[in-house]
Amino acid sequence: MSTSASSSSALKAPSLGKEDGLFDHIPLMRPWIDEDETEAITAVLKSGWITQGQKAIEFENTVAEFIGNKYAVATNSCTSALHLGLRLSGVGPGDEVICPSYTCMATANAIHMAGAEPLFVDIDPLTYNTDAATTEAALSPRTKAILLVHQIGLPADRDAFVALCSKRGLALIEDAACSFGAKYKGLNLGAVGKAVAYSFHPRKMITTGEGGMLISDDKEMADMARILRSTGASVSDLERHKHKGTLVQQYLDTGYNYRFTDMQAALGLMQMKKLPQMLAERKAQAEYYNQVFAPVEAISGPFVPDYAQHSYSSYIVKVHRDAKVNRDQLLEAMAARGISCRVGIQPLHYEPFYKERMSRLDLPNTEQAARDTIFLPIFPGLPEADLERIASTLVDLVSGKQRV
Ligand SMILES: *Cc1c(COP(=O)(O)O)cnc(C)c1O
Q1: 183, 214, 355, 393: most buried by Cβ count inside 10 Å?
Q2: How far is the CA of 175 from the centre of ligand 1 (A)?
Q3: What's the pLDDT at 1?
Q4: How far is CA 237 from CA 24, 45, 165, 251, 279, in A?
């Protein structure tokens, strides 16, 4: 087996070692940050300009070019990027926005921040994403927009949602937080679209500590997002600085502080250089898991439809009824053997905040996914020996060869 995807690449994620203090313990995930990032951030600190400036623009341009769309607006988080995308799509108080319950609380928070209410729909049991038919059945006269989540690194069938939105006059906003580098019909998510949001939190594909990006093909949306991102001012700090303070800003609207710092941008630019290697390592690791798990009837790995290329920000496994252990026992048994796994995603309609208001919801596929799935470690630099140990331990446990 070989998980080193391109041996010709100069970049290689460092393996876990004693210095990580994790020698006997495999983490779920670890960002790949080394001297390159440290030096890049130090250079920004020494430059005297640390908040949003030239580096942030450079990072935006690099991401826009990679994604293949016209505009990229960096923000302090994906939540902020989603909020801007919703607000600039005309979502406001009294509106309802459809999204999955099987997602990060941040998805729904962005809807509340825009003054609207989320309505949760069920997912497809194979892809863990929402589908257009289920979504269409849930539409109400109050529905203003669909917030489509591309969950766990797997693109949803966005063309079906584009068709639905155009048929019913709805806005489409996309949460691609954890799917940077994934592809839909050969293109990056956000290569087409008006409001597609990414996250650069350390749990995602590349990291800037915290950070996000709104991708758009719409000039007006991008221009307004830049204004709202920085207090609603018509002139950015950098433009004012370049004019030696002679440019005066106006406030055409109330805004936010969603700015992205040049320190984050320096980190992001280094991460972009590592992205091809990161994607290749994750893919090779996922393919190894796939191949080991394929003959094991008690579990299934991720299903990837023909239209998609998975980025494997997480590797999800479904534990079937006939497994010798249930999901929770499996999680504990893996932890006892020094392997950190996690329950997949906690549905939002289980949360105290939603329990009352969503009491009538029936989301069987979401509930089954919450009960039966587990995330396995996957990240650049995960040693092959560890990968093999994770896979064989899991198989032994579900088939009863190792006792819990
Ligand atoms: C991580 C995540 C977010 C939130 O991203 P932040 O950058 O932390 O705001 C939103 N949606 C999904 C699906 C996520 O995985």
Answers
A1: 214
A2: 8
A3: 45
A4: 48, 17, 37, 14, 35
